[in-house]
Specification:
By secondary structure, the protein is of the alpha/beta class. It is built from five helices and six strands. A four-stranded mixed sheet has the order 5-4-3-6.
Length: 181
């Protein structure tokens, strides 16, 4: 009977060691003083339009319920964005979703000082919105998917040609929207 007690004590000890070996080690906490936190912010009206020309006094920032000093940086390089959109039968179910992204592209991507062109592609390459004309939302809303071909590379070359015509003081962005593969 005594050896049964020793065996159960040994098993209990091994079980305790196994539990201790599996218990997580205490998490190391690293604290670093932070003097600057960047919080990119966009403000929209109730109608969903981006509000421009906001001032530092229009913002309040709190950390642990304490007001913090706000610095507002509004300088940026103007951009030219060529948005190249696939418009064939392979993406027809996505066309309504793509159309709804127009205001987001105008507000968040192009911004106040930027400009955009919209190029669609299927069997044809069409400049749906040249730089300096109209708005992205209207151009994307007019896309209709048809055909089977997808001339993505040709559309990309057309977009690059349009971007090369923009002033060198602008950053240039080429954005493809389409189905991979």
């Amino acid at each position: 009977m005594r050896w049964i007690g020793q065996i159960s004590n040994t098993i209990l000890s091994w079980g305790t060691l196994a539990l201790l070996a599996q218990s997580p080690t205490p998490m190391t906490v690293i604290r670093v003083p932070v003097h600057l936190v960047t919080a990119p912010t966009l403000v929209f009206s109730k109608e969903g339009r981006l509000l421009h020309a906001l001032q530092r006094t229009d913002f309040r920032l709190f950390d642990n319920d304490r007001a913090q000093r706000v610095a507002l940086e509004t300088l940026s390089t103007p951009i030219s964005v060529a948005i190249v959109v696939q418009a064939n039968q392979d993406v027809r179910q996505y066309v309504p979703l793509i159309a709804r992204t127009g205001s987001v592209c105008d507000a968040l991507l192009v911004g106040e000082s930027g400009e955009a062109a919209v190029i669609t592609y299927n069997g044809d390459i069409i400049v749906a919105k040249p730089f300096g004309e109209g708005d992205v939302q209207s151009a994307l809303g007019k896309i209709s998917a048809h055909g089977r071909r997808a001339r993505m590379i040709d559309a990309g070359f057309r977009a690059i040609a349009l971007l090369k015509e923009r002033p060198t003081s602008r950053d240039r962005i080429l954005l493809f929207i389409g189905q991979p593969g």
